Amino acid sequence: MADDAGVALNTKDLIVEFENFTPVRGISVKIREGSTVAVMGRSGSGKSTFIKAASGVIPATSGEVRVFGRLLGPLNNRELRRLRKVCGFVFQDAALWQNMSVYRNLALPLEQHYPELSNAERDKKIRRAVERIRFTDDLNLRPASLSAGEAKLVAFVRAILTEPKLLILDEPTTFVDRTGVDRILSMLRQLKDAGTTLVVVSHNATVVSQLADEIIVIDEGELLIHGSTDQVAASDNPVVRDIVSDVLDQAATFDSDILSLLGEIDDEG
Amino acid sequence: MKFRIRFATQIVGAFTILAVVFVIVLMVAIGRGQGWFEPRYEYSTELSSASGLNIGMSVDFRGFEVGRVTNITLNEDNNVDVTFNIRERYIHLVTKGSLVELASNPILGGTLVLHRGTRSSEPLEQFSVIPEWNSDIGRAIREVGFVERSQPPDPISTLLAELDPLLNSISEILGSTELILDTLAGTLDGTVTEGPIAETVTQVLSLLATVEARLEQTESLLAGSDDLLVSVNRIADNAAAASDEFRDPAGIVPRLLGASGTLATLFDDDNVLFDEILDIFTSINATLDELNEVARFAGSQTPQFAAIIEEGREAIIVGQDVLTGLRNNPLLRGGIPERIDQPSNVESFREAQF
Amino acid sequence: MLEAVGERVLRAPKELLYALGFMVEIVRNIPAYFQMQRRGGGGGVLKMQILFTGVNALSIVAVLSLAIGAVIIIQGLSILPQLGQGQLIYTILIAVITRELGPILTAFIVIARSGTAISTELGGMVVDHQIEAYMATGLNPITYLAVPRVLGVVISLVLLNIYFNFFGLVGSFLVTQLVQPLALEEYLFGLYGSVTLRDFVASFAKSIIFGMIIGSVATYQGLSVERAGTEVPIRAIKAVGQGITLTVIANAAITLVSYL
């Protein structure tokens, strides 16, 4: 499709149906390359299911999903792997692999997508990333012995280690303490500057207000609005206003502080 | 548990290698025992029937398995081509003059028995045809003594072999008796004016001598045999009694001829003679019934039993026809009814393989 | 009621077809698994599966087969000589231990131990989104999770069957020593007089097919968990039930075919 040029993620009438309910009821969005999009909605509105289906983590019941123009679905193993290399995903509940050490959790995606790396190179990459989030625990621990916040950080590192062009994050900051959130924010900022397309599901006003260029609001499985933060802020739909009000307030409050805050974080990074 | 996980690779390796070693050792042992790795040479033979024969059956020499039957096909002459192989280490047994024999009986199962040729020590070339023991060539080779019988056949096979000529002779007697009675009937009819009665009777008498000899042979064979053979013994006894009747100087035949060589007696003695003849046939019939029972006991796997009984039955039917003819004699009753198609039993009987 | 029965009947072939498709998918993914292994991935799942399914089940298999071999010998030696068929004991040993009980009893043991373990483990992984994480990383869960487990079960089952045979035949020999001493050579001679290549092939074929069935059913049931933790034990029970049913049916079918 010609108009897919410059589009990182494109869904068309996406429907996801489970046995007894339909969390996603026909959502069509286009997310431009390099943009940062916040996906918002009340709990149970279908945001998580939508982004999972949009990234092919779970199959769509009907509709089309294109990631960088490639249609998901008819892909074979190799194509799927190539796609996965450019599309990272951070799960709401971390979803670390319990049967392997934290280190293996980080190493496996690298082995998968960068088989050409030597063991030493891979090890260096992992150590550096872990340092950046100030994860100090023993990497040989099993994920079960980590706290929820630590697990989330590890999951975040796991997703960005492979340097995806499109990173989808499902509530990246829940359970994470303040300093942790700051580190994640700073790293997301860097990714954004490097041209990575970010899709963030978040209730966290700070994250949304500081990062997002665009906002998608989903309610009851349907797309309410998709537009720039300004457009969404100008919406007079009461549901939209209700959902994004926090963010808009925060945006006003923090606007002045943002530059200094970011400068501080960047120094750390 | 910790130990197991730390040395998982070694443990799994040992687990696998031990199992594989066990299988290999077992395979080699079995293979050596059954000669899997030994070259085999192929030969063939021709049998008249494949019954009792199956692929994979062993080829035995003095109770040792020396090879296996590999293929059985029906050829253009309606005989059975049997292909079998012989293990290399036993190849010296297959020489000029070697014969094979299908030893099959319902109780012990079957084998193809190899008999060693004594003509030369040079093994036969692969793919040669080894004649069958009872075939014409086989007989010829046996007669000139170029073959050494490798094992006495088991009692059941022997019994079958002996019963064959015995029943054959009974059948011949019945045939001759029929001829006599036929001639008698013809004479009575007036259709035969000068019947060769005397000649026919002489023939019957010589046949009876053969039967007698056969029976003695069978009886000696059966003497002291186990329970299975008791009933067979009784059959022989019955047959002997029947033949005795024929030989009795005061028996049927002389009386048939009568003192004057006329047929007067046949009508003068209130059917006594007629009844006697009937008795003989009845007793032969009973004999065959018993044989039938033995055959059923032994199972139906051996077609020879069935063949013998069938032949005997047909002979009896001919005899009974004659009796019917006598009973219906125009002078007595009303003539011999026409019986169409009475095939020669003896021919087909001879072909049955033993 | 009527509707419920009808629905079940209509669903059964569909599910069976789906499960068969799953098995085909596993077989299709075996080469991919070995490719991944060559690239250094895989993380020793196969090895651990053999350790848990095979090595750790060895003791129970040994006890079971020793006892069964012994029972066959005792029964055989007390009955067969009365019929004058003492030699048949070897044929019976081979038929029972090698052809029938070896494959099926080891299959039952593996179903009970590893079928449940595999379906519970995979079910748990579904519940806390680990499977989705594999998908997101581009690791096909069939290649990465199901294939090594199924292969592990198949290999373990074949090996356990060999050990079952070993212990069963050795056990029966030891008992023979107690009842009526017999020279080892005579025993072995009798045994390999009655064994044929066909017995081995049938036995191995059974183990491989049973392994495929058990592994596929267990992984299928495990991955069929949708979201709730409560589904996990239900699926584990199903894995056992279906595993046993399908194994027994397959056994009958193979025995039938091998005697045709």
What key phrases describe this protein's structure?
heterotrimer; B: 354 residues; alpha+beta; seven-stranded mixed β-sheet; 11 helices; disordered C terminus; C: 260 residues; mainly alpha; 0% strand; elongated
Based on helices, strands and strand pairing, what is the structural class of chain B?
alpha+beta
Pattern of helices and strands of chain C: HHHHHHHHH
Number of separate helices of chain C = 9
Q: Whole-Å distance between the termini of chain C?
A: 42 Å
- Strand elements of chain C, count: 0
Q: Structural class of the helices, strands and pairings of chain C?
A: mainly alpha
Oligomer designation: heterotrimer
Largest interface, with counts of residues having CB < 8 Å to the other chain, equals: A-C, 34 and 23 residues
**Low-pLDDT residue intervals, each spanning 5 or more residues of chain C:** none
How many E strands of chain B?
A: 7
Radius of gyration of chain B: 29 Å
Low-confidence stretches of chain B: 192-198, 222-228, 257-265, 329-354
Kindly state the percentage of residues in helix of chain B: 40-55%
Percent of residues in helices of chain C: over 70%
Euclidean distance between termini CA atoms of chain B? 70 Å
Strand content of chain C: under 5%
Biggest beta-sheet profile of chain C: none
Beta-strand percentage range of chain B: 5-15%
Question: How would a crystallographer describe the biggest sheet of chain B?
Answer: 7 strands, mixed
How many domains would you count in the coordinates of chain B? 2
